[in-house]
Specification:
By secondary structure, this protein is an alpha+beta fold. The protein is built from five helices and 25 strands.
Amino acid sequence: MKLRSQAFSIFSFLLLTCCLITMVACNGNEENSESKIASFKAEIVDSLVIDRLSVLELFDYQSSTGELLFFDTQTGEHLIINEEAEVLSSFNPLVEGPSYMGNSYGWSFYGKDELAAYGHAYFYRYSKSGEILGRYEPPIEAGGGIILDFKPQRIKAFETERGTEVLAMILDLSNRNRKTQQFQDSIDDVFRMNFETGENTTVMHKQPDNIYRTAGEYMDWGYPTFTLLSGSTFALTHQSDNHLYIFDAEKNEYLNKIAIPTEFLPEYKAVEFGSKDDPELLKINSHVFSVGNKILLLSLGKIPNAVMKELQQLPRWWYSPEFEAATRKYMTTDFLLFDQKQFLGKVDWDINLNEPMPKGTENDFLWLKRTYKDERDYQTFLKVKIVKE
């Protein structure tokens, strides 16, 4: 009896020890996990103050020269400004004259001394002083424009062995039914274009194992959001994708596929192909931004459709306290940091985030516009770095 009691005591001790070890291990893993996802933060390291009353939107940043391309949303003027807030040039492509192009879908620095623009009917090359150097037909008949609610980058110049080329997202507005498997399998909306030779190639095709091609149901149109890392290497994803991709535009090949952590995966209510109903996106991969050779992915919550329908019944609903409350409740933001091989962690972001989105750079920082509730006679753009805590 004594022997059995001792044996039971030993067994109990071992069991208790195992439980304690397991608890410590679990707690340790949770701490490691938490420390991993909270080991980075966004830090303001500098700012650019521009004396201008009208609203400026940052179109592009040229890492090699430190120049920024701005668009004055009230006058239509385009300005190139350096990091000392000196205006180096200005021109207005919305006013009839030698620089006229009309409205555009996007601009990019092109090579060292030029700009590239994606107009409604043509692509253009400009000198930095605003002189039109070339006009080029798009590779497909886009047939007009379309506004995407997540405002992706539509044009970006990059360097290849053959010189400067551009990557452009051109939306096919033919009457193809987007709610079909055939559309998801064959959609070609990103083009690599060489203005000098006239060559163009579709790139960034969805791979056979991409969720848009394997889910068997309709989630969204599946247009990408991409950002240039360096040379001809881009990072990209899609609104409902479960991966981040590294892609070489010059070679037209994927270099890596990185899983987005489960807790940050997009959330949606898909519909059957051919359905008259619309899917509902509850959390999306909103944008990707380059931070040197790293990638910042913005995971963004969305206001549910039913809630939005109720809000839109209110007068001037976009200014209503109900809309502000819904925004705080549903439009959560998570910034996720990756390198070109793996997920690195979540970024603590306590900087006020408003439209327009940050602008990534090939250097180790982003540009972010500071917004004010009152009117100011100047515009402030913050230089933000991602640092370890």
